[in-house]
Automatic annotation (TrEMBL):
Membrane spanning residue stretches: 41-59, 71-89, 101-120, 127-149, 188-211
Membrane topology classification: Multi-pass membrane protein
Keyword annotations from UniProtKB, A to Z: Membrane, Transmembrane, Transmembrane helix
Name under which the protein is recorded: Uncharacterized protein
Main location, first listed in the record: membrane
Annotated family: Belongs to the TMEM45 family.
Domain of life: Eukaryota
Location(s) in or outside the cell: Membrane
């Protein structure tokens, strides 16, 4: 939660623009802050989910209701993230557009598996796929940060240029663009191999050490948790 609040503050008030996100004349959002508000809105939706998840965990008397509402809020957060990435104010063409396109695939998988968690709260596979996809999404965002916003990490034949009030990666010709997009696809395919491979390997190692001795329990206080409600627990509770 603290990281979400810090991220929102960083996007809106700690930017390199050194000015206010709202126009001093009419109070409207300045055009160079549109993408900052989009990023902040994504963080806000996950912050709301995290807040209510904690509240439900502490005060809800029904584990079934807790599971369904928390998953619903998470699904809404992923849906908003998908919508804002799909309709992003930044460039949807070229290298950045390809990164965003592949990111949308990961977000959609997270959204679908989160909704499936409502109907199948005890499904290990649903929870495992969602968890792996969230890790995948985080690593992909880090990769995007290096390639798109760090000088010197652009693909060969491409460079970061200032267009208007935003820095974008532009390629010198069609051949360089095709090579850059192909590299993005290769990066995604390598992540697709490595991330699930690491996750399954890590699971096998943990299973070898702990076997079936691990029991999943709710974070709620025991007095708020009826014993017959254990069957409704989500695997990730």
């Amino acid at each position: 939660m603290a990281s979400g609040i810090f991220f929102i503050a960083m996007e809106l008030f700690m930017t390199p623009h050194h000015d206010h996100p709202f126009d001093s004349h009419d109070g409207t959002i300045q055009s160079n802050y549109l993408h900052n508000f989009e990023h902040s809105s994504m963080a806000l939706s996950f912050l709301i989910y995290a807040t209510f998840a904690i509240i439900l965990d502490r005060f809800s008397s029904s584990t079934k209701v807790q599971n369904e509402l928390s998953h619903l809020l998470a699904a809404i957060a992923f849906a908003q993230q998908f919508l804002l990435i799909h309709l992003h104010s930044r460039d949807h063409m070229g290298v950045e557009g390809q990164y965003h396109y592949l990111l949308q695939i990961l977000i959609m998988i997270c959204f679908v598996t989160t909704l499936m968690g409502i109907g199948f709260p005890m499904s290990f596979l649903v929870c495992f796929v969602r968890s792996v996809c969230i890790i995948f999404q985080g690593l992909w965002l880090i990769c995007m940060g290096f390639v798109l916003f760090t000088p010197g990490y652009e693909p060969k034949g491409c460079s970061t240029k200032l267009e208007g009030d935003q820095f974008v990666v532009r390629c010198s010709d069609e051949k360089a663009l095709h090579r850059a997009v192909s590299l993005v696809n290769l990066q995604f395919s390598w992540f697709l191999i490595c991330v699930p491979g690491f996750a399954v390997s890590f699971y096998l190692i943990m299973a070898r050490f702990y076997g079936e001795k691990v029991e999943y329990v709710s974070l709620m206080k025991e007095e708020h948790c009826p014993e017959d409600g254990l069957k409704n627990f989500d695997v990730e509770s």
